[in-house]
């Protein structure tokens, strides 16, 4: 989504290779995951921004990398470009109108110009009933969950609780606790982010409690289609050098796989040749 935050892009490319490799090697855990789950991987939502970051920012200082390639070719931050469904939802709350999902009917009241990349992803979200998703960023190390906007309008420090707050916290902790050190309370905070030490709260944060994002993909996914989406900040450095990528993969591998498993907490029986067979718990041989 942000072209200068390249770690997520590289991790998803590696994840695709890993899933195929482990499947063909007979890894039962990965085979079950693939058989049970429809998996979509989108390594880059902003290829123009990535190309600019690669050509102009990859060898620059971390401070410069904060900006080069962040936006798309039209200089628009795509994670501020989705319809602001939070505003509609908060208005429904004030009117005692009990509707906090499938809110796209109200978007005709919104005025922002939707970019082609954003519109394409919106069509995908509406076409396919996603259950669980994450959008990947870097610049910090934390699992961020809805809501990203505050009810009062303050720009940070106000916890914006959703009706599914417990579930979102559980999903965020799933990623943080399976990451090498996202949830390690002894690690130091990222030096450039100016953020609190998220590790002391389990490596997770409510979006608006951290800082407000208006028009982000996370809340749009949740409020438009009931998809449980997190925003994952995967590392302090936005544009890590290539030699660090293998280590970053190892740091994130277990967390990525465990997060995907949460789309189906229970393994149900399957049918093979008309015979009902149980799917064994993960880690046990059939």
What does this structure look like?
There is one protein chain. Strand 5 (270-272) and strand 6 form a beta hairpin. This protein has 286 residues and is an alpha/beta fold. 38% of the residues lie in helices and 10% in strands. The chain has a domain at 76-266: Zn peptidases (Aminopeptidase). The relative contact order is 0.18. It is globular and about 55 Å long. It has ten helices and six strands, in the order ααααααββαβααβαββ. The chain has helices at 7-24, 28-36, 47-57, 62-65, 85-94, 116-127, 165-178, 207-210, 217-225, 245-261; strands spanning 132-137, 140-145, 204-206, 228-235, 270-272, 275-277. The longest helix has 18 residues, at 7-24. The model is unreliable at 266-286 (pLDDT under 50). A four-stranded mixed sheet has the order 1-4-2-3, sandwiched between helices. Strands 5-6 form a two-stranded antiparallel sheet. This is Carboxypeptidase E isoform X1. The active site is at residue 233. One of its GO terms (biological process) is protein processing. Keywords: Carboxypeptidase, Hydrolase, Metal-binding, Protease, Zinc. Belongs to the peptidase M14 family.
What name does the CATH topology of one domain carry? Aminopeptidase
CATH class of one domain: Alpha Beta
Task: Specify Rg, calculated over alpha carbons.
Answer: 19 Å
Strand order of the largest sheet: 1-4-2-3
Q: Given the helix and strand composition, which structural class is it?
A: alpha/beta
Q: What is the count of β-strands?
A: 6
Number of helices: 10
Annotated CATH homologous superfamily of one domain: Zn peptidases
Helix content: 25-40%
- Portion in strands: 5-15%
The parts where pLDDT drops under 50 for at least 5 residues are: 266-286
What's the pLDDT, averaged over the residues? 85
Distance between the termini: 40 Å
- Named at the architecture level, the CATH assignment of one domain is 3-Layer(aba) Sandwich
Shape by Cα distribution: globular
Task: Report the sheet with the most strands, covering strand number, pairing sense and barrel closure.
Answer: 4 strands, mixed
Run of helices and strands: HHHHHHEEHEHHEHEE
